[in-house]
Design goal:
- Helix content is about 35%, strand content about 15%.
- The protein is α/β, with parallel strands linked by helices.
- The strands form four sheets. The protein has an eight-stranded mixed beta sheet with strand order 1-2-5-6-7-8-9-12, with helices on both faces. A two-stranded antiparallel ribbon has the order 3-4. It has a two-stranded antiparallel sheet with strand order 10-11.
- Strand 5, helix 2 and strand 6 form a beta-alpha-beta unit.
- The longest helix is centred in the first third of the chain and has 16 residues.
- It is globular, with a radius of gyration of 20 Å.
Length: about 325
């Protein structure tokens, strides 16, 4: 669902005071809600957004926050000014949470200057660039998007290359190497991702007609990839072994912030597939050994705060908590 204001995702707590985007990207999940060709609707003003955030059930002082996942915060002047005002509130109140923003648009000079001036607010700029043709991203100015990488790098700010979605149209080695050469000198790292799926989006996949024919339970699959993209990315990783390329956002966020990965991906198959510096793996390895495990009372308190009924089994050795009950995805992440 969209338009709720807040949503706990795997990596971050999404904050959406504006709903709707005018970029009309054909793969966007907003297509299924009729919100991919709109100027955006304000559902919370900045002050209310901050007030509701700090009392939201999965908010923590160390939560990574995502601003504007149901719009593009730079798609027009109104959005840019609105989110700048919200970020200035974060800075004034010294909220301190790291903040991610995703964009395909030109970032205004004054916004970059503001981010440079912040003392208590760290912004991670996710630049979504994957080499897709105009018919799939009809309103994206690719040259301005690519120029963001250099501008953020020169300003000393964190640019993360969001290499998504990878579709049949942009999965060839030739296209992927072109994209990579455009960004790797300026980005901190890349995060690769396939096509985000759910059952509501199937009818919109005109650009990948095979997906309309196959028997896939889309609600059970997070992302879909082509085989060729897996082969292409392995070749790129072998050519540039010192450049970080991640499969999950929590790894990219942790690397950029110089902190341990916080979703327990360390030493999993996804972790091993990452191109990750040995220094970052060392940080995660130490954390995996020293990370504290909650007591049973702390687990009960967390479940009560989320109104989760049921019993649980906690295993300190395996670092697992098994809950017998109905748990929403966001609550599980928390």
């Amino acid at each position: 669902m969209i338009g709720k204001g807040f949503r706990q995702d795997n990596t971050w707590l999404a904050i959406d005071p504006i709903v709707g985007c005018g970029l009309d990207c054909q793969y966007c999940f907003l297509q299924a809600y009729g919100k991919a060709k709109t100027k955006g609707k304000v559902i919370m003003l900045p002050k209310e957004t901050l007030e509701r955030l700090v009392t939201f059930r999965t908010y923590r002082k160390d939560s990574v926050l995502m601003l504007g996942s149901e719009t593009d915060i730079f798609m027009n002047r109104f959005n840019s000014q609105f989110f700048a005002e919200l970020l200035r509130l974060f800075e004034y109140e010294r909220i301190g949470n790291p903040i991610a923003v995703v964009t395909k648009c030109h970032i205004p000079d004054e916004f970059i200057q503001m981010a440079q001036d912040f003392k208590h607010t760290t912004i991670l700029f996710y630049l979504s660039y994957s080499g897709l043709p105009k018919e799939i991203e009809p309103n994206v100015n690719i040259e301005k998007l690519k120029n963001n990488f250099r501008r953020l790098h020169d300003a000393g700010l964190n640019a993360i290359h969001y290499w998504r979605p990878l579709l049949p149209q942009n999965s060839s080695l030739e296209i992927m190497e072109t994209v990579f050469r455009d960004v790797y000198r300026y980005a901190k790292c890349s995060v690769i991702s396939g096509l985000r799926t759910n059952s509501r989006l199937r009818e919109f996949y005109w650009f990948w007609p095979e997906l309309k024919k196959v028997d896939i339970a889309f609600h059970k699959v997070s992302y879909i990839w082509t085989q060729i993209v897996i082969e292409s990315i392995e070749i790129i990783k072998s050519k540039y072994p010192n450049y970080p390329i991640y499969h999950v956002n929590s790894c990219a966020v942790a690397y950029t912030l110089g902190k341990p990965e916080f979703n327990c991906f360390y030493d999993t198959e996804l972790c091993k597939d990452n191109s990750c510096p040995s220094s970052q793996r060392g940080i995660c390895q130490v954390d995996s050994v020293t990370r504290w495990f909650p007591t049973e009372e702390q687990i009960r308190l967390a479940m009560r705060s989320l109104s989760i009924d049921g019993n649980f089994i906690a295993d300190d050795k395996e670092k697992t908590i098994v809950v017998d009950g109905v748990v929403e995805h966001g609550d599980l992440v928390y």
